[in-house]
Amino acid sequence: MAERRQPVVGIPCDHRMVGKHPFHMAGEKYIRAVREATGAVTLLIPSLPHAIPPDEILSAVDGLLITGSPSNVSPVRYGGPDPRDGVLQDPHRDATTLPLLETAIARGVPVLCICRGFQELNVAMGGTLHQHVHEIDGRMDHREDATADLDTQYGPIHDVRVTEGGLLSKILRERSFPVNSLHSQGIDRLAPKLHADAIAPDGTIEAVSMPGAAGFLLGVQWHPEWRWSENPVSREIFAAFAQAVNAASRT
Length: 251
Known about the structure:
CATH superfamily: Class I glutamine amidotransferase (GATase) domain
Number of domains: 1
CATH architecture: 3-Layer(aba) Sandwich
Radius of gyration: 17 Å
Distance between the termini: 16 Å
Strand content: 15-25%
Strand order of the largest sheet: 4-1-5-6-13-12-11-8-9
CATH class: Alpha Beta
Oligomer: single chain
């Protein structure tokens, strides 16, 4: 009997200039979390100036992790106002991830979206974003303290409340738990097909899924990849993703 192939999880990269040269980058914390939690081979997907067609990418992977990033989703993608000077954009990543998400969701490919990836998911499905959540009346400042050490930046900062009817409520036993917070953008108009799975105390949507999705689909605004194995909620999220990816690799 032939040995079963290891699953493969694709991770789209940021497109960044380092000196005068373009590089394709993905944070090690995401790569390690996927590798450790799922046992999958991690495949870094370049965000080229001419994006690789989604069909070509999806023929090589059993799941996708869409990561966080220092850059923001370009507001041209959802009809928002022009970004302010100094706000990092990544149009090559937008051109790669947004059509990739649409195609993967339609095919039932398991997808886990984190931070920027969570925002990309909302945009890909027809939603919009606030570019500066902390400037909205009644909202918290969800940004990290840039002067703090990483343990402080990724430490719990506020609770989220899980709502019924979404994937997160099926994955987790917990109905309220603390999360970290390292974002300036956030969901404005929720995409019509998405469900708000978790809400922050100020009303900010912190997790989404899609009822009736053909496959595993979860987006979270916080960072479960950070020391994922030490956090019970993160372990449950990655265990559910791992189960979906391993099942997809056997079909």
